[in-house]
Amino acid sequence: MSNISNEMILQAIKELADQLKNHTKETNLRFEQIDRRFEQIDHRFEQIDQQLVQINQRFEKVEKKIEQMDKQITDVANGQKILVEELFDNKKEMKRVKNVLNMF
């Protein structure tokens, strides 16, 4: 009877060891899958980082263009102001000349 019990216990230990080996293999495979997923995610983050760098470069270019356009608009506005002032001065001068001519 003790031989049978020992054999049963030994058989149970062997089965548990096999289950543990199988479980270890499955766990290792699962970790390998998870590692591959993390590598894919890391790669995707690298791509996103590159895209963000490109987007930032584009924003910098747009910002420079906007600054340039703002300067040009300011220059145009200043030029218009000067022209309006000169036109006003010319009209005053024409009115003065007209009044002088009307006196004669």
From TrEMBL:
Q: Tell me which stretches of the chain form a coiled coil.
A: 6-72
Instruction: List keywords of the entry alphabetically.
Output: Coiled coil
Q: Name the chain's protein.
A: Methyl-accepting chemotaxis protein
Q: Which organism is it from?
A: Aeribacillus alveayuensis
Q: Which domain of life does the protein's organism represent?
A: Bacteria
Question: Gene3D superfamilies, from UniProt?
Answer: 6.10.250.2540
